[in-house]
Task: structure prediction
Amino acid sequence: MTKKYKLNLTYYLIPILFSAKAYCQDNISLNEIDYKINKGRFYSSLNFSLDQRNAENENQLIRQVIDQNKYDYTITANAGFAIKDNLTLGFSAGYGRAKEVITFLDQDDMEVQSNLLEQSFSFLPNLRQYIPIGAGRLQIIVQTQLGFTFGESLQRDFMMNDVNKIETDFIDFQLGINPGLVLFFNRNWALETTVGVAGFSARLDEKTVNNDVDAQEKVQTTNIDLKLNLLELSLGVAYYFK
Result:
């Protein structure tokens, strides 16, 4: 049995957007508000995303999972400045944390319990293009970002007669496009939602097993993904001023 919970805002955002459209049509005063992102305007926002997964008796190709409990979340603070109309230069800083407790059978049908704890810090300079729809209360955003993530993880594998301790330090570089929507409640306050990044990424992992530094493993991976992940949604509240 598998249960997977993800902060999927699609089902909540669509009714909100239709309600906002109807509300704007019935209230001329709202349409008269200037929602434009004019040159010189500032914004700040706080975004949150969450992913949780529970599984029991699941076949995951190379292993048979007896029980799995996993979650990860990310909190991101953003700030930006409009260098021209509908175009902002910004910076984001984020903190992520993940935890997994899993019991599975390895290839020799031996039971293994693995505990993983990971944390990361991200820094993302970015450019945002705003595309107003109608009066501008609803706007499409296309964010091009250059991301750097630094993190570490600790994993302990408990086997019948042994325990493995795996420490990992990693650096992740990312260049991509992060589209989304902004819905203004008034001229200053807005709701933001964005989807997963499409673009190029490169990552370097340094793994140390049981404190054996001389046998440290280094793994470098690169990836080009041009598909937008609509399930990787984040929700945030933004404040625009000036």
Observations:
- Residues 43 and 240 are 4 Å apart (CA to CA).
